[in-house]
Amino acid sequence: MNYLGNRSIFREKILWSSIYLVSLPFPVKSTETDTLSVNFSESLFRQKIVSMDFKNTDIKDIIRVLASQYGLNIFIEDNVSRRLTLHLENVTLGDALHYITEQNGLLMEKYGSIYKITDSPPPQPPPPELKKWNMFCKNGLISLDLKNENLADALYQISLCSGVNIFLERFIDDEITGYIHDMPFEQAMYQLLKNNGYLFRKEGSAYQVRRFRSGSPDTKSPGRQFWINTRRERIDLELESAELNQVLTELSRQLNINLFLYGNISGTVTARADDLTLNQCLNLVLCGNEYTYKQSGNIYLIGEKTNKLLSSSHLFQLSHLKVDGILEMFPQKISEKAEFKIIREHNAVLVNASQDIINEIASIVEDLDRPIPQILIEALVVDYNYQDIREIQLEAG
Q1: What is the architecture, at CATH level 2, of domain 7-119?
Q2: Best exposed site among 22, 143, 167, 357 by fewest CB in 10 Å?
Q3: Residue 164: C-alpha distances to residues 111, 140, 141, 227, 344 (Å)
């Protein structure tokens, strides 16, 4: 326990009624958990220092001398390192300690009957100045000037300014730039966010901001972008020259469906639609390409239209037309791409073709198989005898 010097100092310390603590290598726990500021006017600190002189002395040694001389329990942290030249004469102990700690940027605190001297914490930086946003909203119009602003912060300010609810897709921490002057709110926001690679859409009473997903390895390319949103198995989408393969993969991911692609699916698609079923969506994105799909249970197979494995069969039962003449009504370009089988017993036709051809045939059948207009002629038959009429005339004459 010889932390303060030689053995004579240690033996001397045992004789005192109180001890002083200087730079102990083990933690000191106070019996009181509350830290109190030091009141230098207490009777302990009113003791007089007649005369003391220190020249280029370590501050720990100065505190050690004062503590031992006046019966203080003082702990000084190891990182406190100062050397002082000091002459004290006819001053109180409190004034001396107050001067030493204050002039050297130290903090003295009280823990029960122990005093602790530490370096003062660095001053807290001033609070950041509130950013002034160049933004104005009135009568459904918005004006703003943004330059490399954080997107989340900018949308928060726009929401406060306009009074509308705006939700930002998670995990977005990008910047936005744009200048708008007195434009209708929806039009302004749509153009501003689109030019920065985002989609702005109204859903219910709120607006959603989502990132366009890139369907190209070159994510910096302004083209080949798409946005897809699914809700309750309905699909909203906006595609701009989007890679077909990436669109199909995103649909599979969001709807959690089993999707198998035959071969290398290439090509792009541009489309915008809301509230589609999956089948409607696949018809939409595949109709302009040489691909088709086939549903087998909960599995969707997608590949080239020439792939016989992707042919589907569908039975069209007619309600108003006779099935015998239905085949002549189909356009030749449709008939060449499908196989037909007449089933007279059910007044129906079985079609085997790719899904896109079946969809076209279904549309034609729906237009043709309608009730045949009937013409109703009403007639009144009057039966009379010419002789009876002459007799009536004679009687009257």
Answers
A1: 3-Layer(bab) Sandwich (3.55)
A2: 167
A3: 54, 11, 13, 23, 62
